[in-house]
């Protein structure tokens, strides 16, 4: 394989993973016409079209699927081997793609990412907030952050944040108007602001610990949103009570009051997870070690 063929294969794999010419161009930081030209040259060399193009989407042909299946892993191993020895004595650099839920962002990453960027200015973070379950390899991410250590085969999970409580909170003015519930049954007389997971199209349920058994409290929300900041804002404006993880609430403790704390649900610790070979890539290893460092500070 000569240099031009290697470059064309890189472009092909980017198109296949991003699902479009423009997406591949954005990922590779080159012009879209250059991506199209490279693909055309590769198709001419192979003697068969690799994608079926329509006005709305681009799909792999049978030849394209075969080329993808036979080259993807090899290219990934080659890239990993190259990056593992590149600039060993220099400053870590390059892009690290992270996927995490909105809750994990506010709880884990938001308080520390600026420090990481100042400490490692040549590493560029590409952060995607997504409440859906994400396949790192298929979607091209380096690391993910989520609750629990259950991961797919070939992944490594390492704890970076302790177990946390999910609490119920309301503004002082709301509680002054409607009263403070003393037992879970009294929530039925209160207004609930619900959180909807867009990808699963479902509400995050109210679950409370009653006599060591987890119970789901069935309430109809007076308002629903899919953003944590909006959830907090609605509670501040005395519209009802909300569910929030305790570490996030600590940043808003002056505005919101905990209720029914003895019944709160405890969640599993938060983990960073990544493909086994990713830690060989210096920029990825640097981020993982930074997250573990911050976890050790929390544990002291």
TrEMBL record:
The keyword Transcription applies. GO terms for molecular function: DNA binding; DNA-binding transcription factor activity. PROSITE patterns: HTH_LYSR. Belongs to the LysR transcriptional regulatory family. This is LysR family transcriptional regulator. Pfam families: HTH_1, LysR_substrate. The lineage of its organism: Bacteria, Pseudomonadati, Pseudomonadota, Gammaproteobacteria, Pasteurellales. It comes from Gallibacterium salpingitidis. Keywords: DNA-binding, Transcription, Transcription regulation. It comes from the Bacteria. Residues 1-61 form the HTH lysR-type domain. PANTHER family: HTH-TYPE TRANSCRIPTIONAL ACTIVATOR TTDR-RELATED (PTHR30537:SF5), HTH-TYPE TRANSCRIPTIONAL REGULATOR (PTHR30537).
């Amino acid at each position: 394989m000569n240099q031009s063929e290697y470059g064309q294969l890189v472009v092909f794999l980017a198109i296949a993973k991003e699902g479009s010419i423009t997406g591949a161009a954005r990922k590779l930081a080159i012009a879209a016409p250059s991506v199209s030209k490279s693909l055309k040259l590769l198709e001419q060399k192979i003697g068969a079209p690799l994608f079926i193009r329509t006005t709305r989407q681009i799909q792999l042909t049978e030849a394209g699927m075969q080329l993808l299946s036979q080259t993807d892993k090899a290219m990934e191993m080659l890239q990993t081997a190259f990056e593992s020895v590149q600039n060993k004595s220099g400053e870590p650099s390059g892009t690290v793609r992270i996927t995490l839920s909105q809750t994990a962002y506010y709880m884990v990453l938001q308080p520390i990412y600026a420090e990481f960027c100042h400490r490692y200015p040549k590493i560029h973070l590409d952060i995607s907030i997504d409440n859906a379950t994400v396949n790192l390899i298929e979607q091209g991410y380096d690391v993910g952050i989520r609750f629990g250590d259950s991961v797919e085969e070939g992944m490594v999970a390492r704890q970076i944040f302790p177990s946390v409580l999910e609490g119920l909170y309301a503004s002082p003015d709301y509680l002054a108007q409607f009263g403070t519930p003393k037992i879970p049954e009294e929530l039925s007389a209160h207004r609930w602001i619900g959180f909807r997971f867009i990808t699963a199209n479902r509400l995050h349920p109210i679950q409370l610990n009653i006599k060591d058994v987890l119970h789901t409290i069935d309430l109809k929300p007076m308002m629903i949103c899919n953003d944590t900041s909006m959830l907090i804002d609605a509670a501040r404006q005395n519209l009802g009570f909300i569910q929030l993880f305790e570490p996030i609430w600590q940043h808003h403790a002056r505005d919101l009051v905990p209720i029914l704390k003895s019944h709160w649900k405890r969640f599993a610790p938060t983990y960073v997870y990544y493909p086994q070979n990713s830690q060989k890539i210096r920029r990825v290893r640097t981020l993982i070690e930074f997250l573990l460092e911050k976890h050790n500070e929390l544990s002291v």
